[in-house]
Amino acid sequence: MPCKPQRFERAQQEGNLPKKTVNCAVLAAYVCTVLHGMAVQAKAGFSREMLDMVIDQVMLNWPSNAQDGVAAIPARSSDLLINPLLA
Fold first, then answer.
1. In this predicted model, what pLDDT tens digit does every residue of 39-87 receive, in sequence order?
2. Which of 12, 13, 46, 83 meets the CB 3.0–4.6 Å disulfide criterion with 41?
């Protein structure tokens, strides 16, 4: 299932992602790569705790357009809703 950048494009239009430094197609591919890799790891028996830590690490580098230092996307893996990226 291909990942689609439309959700990230909307986030840019709404001011939640930087327009100058984020390539939405690449960001969507990056997220899907991480998700697919995590699916392989989960099937191989990686713990939920380890998979949550992987997402936490990804979120440390998430692009933000927030002026007040508050991330535009949740910083904890348990708060994420990834499904719109695959729709």
1. 999 999 999 999 999 999 998 888 876 554 445 555 454 444 444 444 4
2. 46
* Cα(23)–Cα(34) distance, integer angstroms: 17
Q: Is 81 strand, coil or helix?
A: coil
Q: How many CB atoms lie within 10 A of CB 31?
A: 20
The count of domains in the chain is 1
Residue 41: exposure state from Cβ atoms within 10 A (0-12, 13-18, ≥19): middle
Q: What is the DSSP letter of 84?
A: G
Question: 66 is in which domain, residue-wise?
Answer: 6-81
